[in-house]
Design a protein that fits this description.
- The structure is a homodimer.
- The first copy, chain A, is α+β, with helices and mostly antiparallel strands.
- The first copy, chain A, has eight helices and twelve strands.
- In chain A, strands 4-3-2-6-5-1-11-12 form an eight-stranded mixed β-sheet. In chain A, strands 7-8-9-10 form a four-stranded antiparallel β-sheet.
- In chain A, β11 and β12 form a beta hairpin.
- In chain A, α2 runs antiparallel to α3 and α3 packs across α4.
- The longest helix of chain A is centred in the N-terminal third of the chain and has 23 residues.
- At the A-B interface, β3, β4, α4, α6 and α7 of A face β3, β4, α4, α6 and α7 of B.
């Protein structure tokens, strides 16, 4: 009998230099544990991997601690542009949205694209309009804003660089991973009792990104991939590098074509193929046997996994 | 010494049922030959594969016979939304734009994203704005319109279906491939004298597509991929299937991981992996040895190839 499993991530990055306040670290761990439990319930009740990853990513989007949905980072223009994708490993059906601004839960929009359109990918205002027509919850873009994310934008713009700023020195209640160096994405992968795999990914992108930029999160093959024949993968990291590496599909292709294990393939992509491309980040993946791997080449990655009915594991740094 | 090579395509599809007028067929063949010659000149003068594919795709965009740039198809709303991508096999650098409406040559915008931004992919109005800032030629969207493409939209909408219409019966001067069944994209792949590979792809998408839809053409890994270690690939076909199959990268991955030839890998993707996903279409590819393959699972594909200094080959149907 197949034991359903679920894994989630909330972004990868560098450990903050200042002293971590234990209570803040606990808040992140509690959030991961609670979100895992939300997805686990679906799998425990015989639900599909597709439903479990949709719900887990929806919960990650709802949590302001993570860079997706409410709590998404700001673009250079102090706006929000959200990306998401989802893939069903049993059919290779998939859906994605990019640069959406008013859909409360972008992962649900990605799923609606997959299930209710002849296409697999919509971008911009038309993606928002599609979600509205589908009856998904629409919010004002300010819904996604939090004071912490706005402070990050100001900090990034003060440094005068276009990409990632340096530090949060002096801030005392900072999170366990340095937000200014974090590659913020959320994602989930699951295996259900029927042996089906699914993956979903969602993000607000990079703080201070250029408006219109699309990262790897909505790109099937780069930020998200699922195939019952091999594995389900959700990535987080410097999106440009993950696109160049076709990172998510590369894990599956290596397994399919060389017969190596999930762990071997995922480690090879994260530790050998991504670094030469400036590919800081990590991924979570599960195979059809329920093996889970969560490698990252940064100092930490918010992550958690659970085999249904067993104790959940959550972690931020290396073991 | 490496013999530089260039291959191009102008879309795949079904043979039209009515009698083909030889003069119309010749017009397509002449266009392919002339465009090949334009790219070949660059390679013959020691130019890069990247410059050759940029120029070949620019010429395909300029030609109203092909669905990219001037001559692009219409969306459901009678607008144009263009997608393009490019990848440099020597560095894995890449760039892409989606849903642009005013950039005369989307392939140049993709290249500008690659060379002059910290990102690799822009979508929508912000992609147009980026191209404008880069000094690329901006046109009114009506520049892309041709009477033939508008007639195709009207025909598609009269059938009352959202996707592909059936026939052009009764039209006498129709092109060699049934435009209503054609998967219109253009693309180029090249190997230069320095041993570097490059690929580029550009499209107007599908006639009557939903606004905001993004197909495979701007997706690195699906519609375009290049890596000196394996091959350069540009695809054309039902974009949704090519995204699900991660088709372009799959050719490269199969070569890298199993050691099969370019032809073997490309044929496997086109004849075995895409059809179960409803993946009508084809691709062109070249490897580091200058081998070329141009498989398609439709009745025809506009295509051509040349080894620098030798006679060019152009074809539409099977040999």
């Amino acid at each position: 009998m197949i034991k359903p499993v679920l894994a989630i991530h909330g972004g990868a990055g560098a450990i903050t230099r200042a002293q971590i306040i234990p209570a803040v670290k606990l808040a992140y761990e509690d959030a991961l544990r609670s979100i895992l439990a939300g997805g686990e319930r679906i799998l425990a009740n015989g639900g599909s991997a597709l439903d479990a990853v949709t719900e887990a990513v929806r919960l990650l989007e709802e949590c302001p601690l993570f860079n997706a949905g409410h709590g998404a980072v700001f673009t250079r223009d102090a706006t929000h542009e959200l990306d998401a994708s989802i893939m069903d490993g049993s059919t290779l059906a998939c859906g994605a949205v990019a640069n959406v601004r008013t859909i409360r839960n972008p992962v649900r929009a990605a799923r609606a694209v997959m299930e209710h359109s002849p296409h697999v990918f919509f971008a911009g205002d038309n993606a928002d309009a599609f979600a509205r027509e589908q009856g998904l919850e629409i919010v004002d873009s300010s819904f996604f804003s939090t004071p912490d994310r706005h402070a990050q934008l100001i900090k990034a713009q003060e440094t005068g660089v276009d990409s990632i700023v340096l530090d949060h020195d002096g801030v005392v209640d900072q999170p366990p991973l340095d937000e200014s160096k974090k590659m913020g994405t959320v994602g989930a992968v699951a295996l259900d009792a029927h042996g089906n795999l699914a993956a979903a990914t969602s993000t607000g992108g990079m703080t201070n990104k250029w408006p219109g930029r699309v990262g790897d999160s909505p790109i099937i093959g780069a930020g998200c991939y699922a195939n019952n024949a091999s594995c389900a993968v959700s990535t987080t990291g410097k999106g440009e590098a993950f696109i160049r590496a076709v990172a998510a599909y590369d894990v599956a292709a290596m397994m399919e074509y060389t017969g190596v294990s999930l762990e071997h393939a995922a480690h090879k992509v994260v530790y050998e193929k991504l670094p030469p491309l400036d590919g800081a980040g990590g991924l979570i993946a599960v195979d059809k046997h329920g093996n889970i791997t969560m490698p990252f080449n940064t100092e930490g990655m918010y992550r958690g996994s659970v085999v249904v009915g067993q104790a959940a594991l959550v972690a931020i740094y290396r073991e």
